[in-house]
Amino acid sequence: MQANYYWVQLDQLSPSDPSEGLSEGPTDGRGRSDSLAGGAAGTPRLLCTRRAKLKKLGQRVMVGDRVLVTEPDWVGGRGAIAAVLPRRNCLERPPIANVDQVIVVFALKEPDLDSLQLTRFLVLIEHSGLALRVVLSKSDLAGAAERQGWCDRLRQWGYPCHCLSSQTGEGVLALLSELQGRTSVLAGPSGVGKSSLINALIPAADLRVGAVSGKLARGRHTTRHVELLQLPQGGLLADTPGFNQPDLTCFPAELATCFPEIRQRLQRETCQFTDCLHDEEPDCGVRGDWERYAHYRVLLAEAIAYQNQISQQATPDARLKLRMGQAGQPHYEPRLAQKRYRRPSRRTQQQALEALYQDLDS
Ligand code: GDP
Ligand code: ZN
């Protein structure tokens, strides 16, 4: 969608010209924001166009972008975006720039917490290179021992977690303080209480809650815009479509880096082969009786299948580049779509997050 108007939330009340602000995303040009809920945080918003120069350069303005605004018309509430400041990162699906952290939400009950499914989400986000936090929702449905059991397990995996209930309000304020001043994205399967959590954090958001499924869910998700919601004490929260089984787009050699347990092990131990996949190789320092090793192997098989699929499709065209593996065997890797984001972690970040937010809810 190529909209011509953007809501820009300004940083200060009386900024000097040009002023800096945060793009809240395209509007339909009739002055209604498609991407803001929860009310402004006390500073003015301007309805802005893109300067012709940006249009010529093909410079896109995304939700979450920091922009420079010129020619502010305070009375009319209008302005023009003269520049987009460099992005720290940028997700394609949902399209949001400058994300600080992903909050992985899983329910303790209804639905039961599935450790492989949770691991799949954790791996995807680890693969993206973004910071993550784990929230266990619906704490009112689980007994103290059960909650403690999950928290202990997750700590063993390498993830401190936080239990909360949108229904009783327990733990919601504590999460709010972690979100303050940051741009956060919620991720998790549908039905775990993400909408309820957003409503508990931002009463003005008033999102629809309910276990929607099938056609209705798909329709709802595909027609919704990205929403960057303002938290009452500052900070932004992105609402995302629900999905249950995101595909892994990770290469086998990258998978080990997505498990804190393996990272930790490799600091103490070594494997016989430098390109060890920690599967059945002799003298592997990673293989062992740690809890998620079985999950690692399930995901490793998927990563191998993914790599095979990429190699089969692979022709030495613009999308893929040929790389020589450690043992001299060639393999193809996708090229980065956008050169300007090329950094060691960016390719994987882009891919993983695109996969993460594809609407696979069915
Ligand atoms: P989403 O699909 O992740 O956005 O989940 P929803 O927010 O739509 O919630 C799914 C279902 O779980 C709804 O029936 C909610 O009423 C229920 N629910 C959400 N949060 C809680 C909670 O903290 N406790 C309990 N008991 N139920 C909850
Ligand atoms: Zn190994």
Give an overview of the whole structure.
The chain has 362 residues and is α/β, with parallel strands linked by helices. The protein is 29% helix and 23% strand. The chain has helices spanning 52-57, 115-128, 144-157, 172-179, 194-201, 214-223, 252-255, 260-268, 293-313, 346-357; strands spanning 5-10, 19-27, 45-50, 66-73, 78-84, 90-92, 95-97, 101-107, 131-137, 161-163, 183-187, 227-230, 236-239, 320-324, 330-334. A six-stranded mixed β-sheet has the order 10-9-8-11-13-12, with helices on both faces. It has a five-stranded mixed barrel with strand order 1-2-4-5-3. Helix 2 (115-128) crosses helix 10 (346-357). The two termini are 24 Å apart. 36% of the residues are buried. Mean pLDDT is 79; it is low at 27-41, 211-224, 336-344 and 358-362. The chain binds guanosine-5'-diphosphate and zinc ion. Guanosine-5'-diphosphate is lined by residues 137-138, 140-141, 165-167, 190-196, 209-211, 242.
Summary tags:
about 350 residues; disordered C terminus; binds zinc ion; alpha/beta; binds guanosine-5'-diphosphate; globular
Task: Provide a quick synopsis of the model.
The protein is of the alpha/beta class.
Helix count, DSSP H or I runs of 4 or more residues: 10
Average pLDDT works out at 79
- Flag low-confidence runs: 27-41, 211-224, 336-344, 358-362
The ordered string of helix (H) and strand (E) elements is EEEHEEEEEHEHEHEHHEEHHHEEH
Number of strands: 15
What Rg, in angstroms, do the CA atoms define? 22 Å
Bound molecules: guanosine-5'-diphosphate, zinc ion
Q: Judging from the principal axes of the Cα atoms, what is the shape?
A: globular
Strand order of the largest sheet: 10-9-8-11-13-12
Helix content: 25-40%
Question: What is the distance, rounded to the nearest whole angstrom, between the alpha carbons of the first and last residues?
Answer: 24 Å
Q: Approximately how much beta-strand content do the residues carry?
A: 15-25%
The largest β sheet comes out as:
6 strands, mixed
Structural class category:
alpha/beta
